[in-house]
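DM from R.C. (forwarded with permission)

"hey, sorry to bug you on a friday — could you get me a structure for this? deadline for the figure draft is monday and I only need the backbone to look sensible"
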Amino acid sequence: MKQLSTNISLIILGLCILAGAWMISNAIQTSDYQNADEQVTVSMNSTEEPQLMSSMELKDYLGISDEQLEMVYPRKEDDVVKSEIPYIKMGYEYYFPVKAIDQWLEETEGKTFQ
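My reply, with the result:
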């Protein structure tokens, strides 16, 4: 009888350890998912300004029309790209750094483009 009660106690102890381990692993997984969700939410709600703008974003940023954008947009002449406005070329696309555009606007205030 003593042997039987010891065996039952060991089985119950094993089941308790197993249940405790399962509950701890569940809590860790839930915590990881919540942290990941919080990080995604923080990055989506970030108020950081973008560092580079596309040509359409530049047009909106400057408040100009397509024709006016063409006047300052980089253009290739004799294998040399000439530009009135600061830009970065990645592949076939031009991107415009926000800080450089702001500085360019201050420097070229009052200048006319043709």
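R.C.: lifesaver. The longest helix spans residues 2-44.
me: no worries. Helices lie at 2-44, 55-62, 66-72, 98-107.
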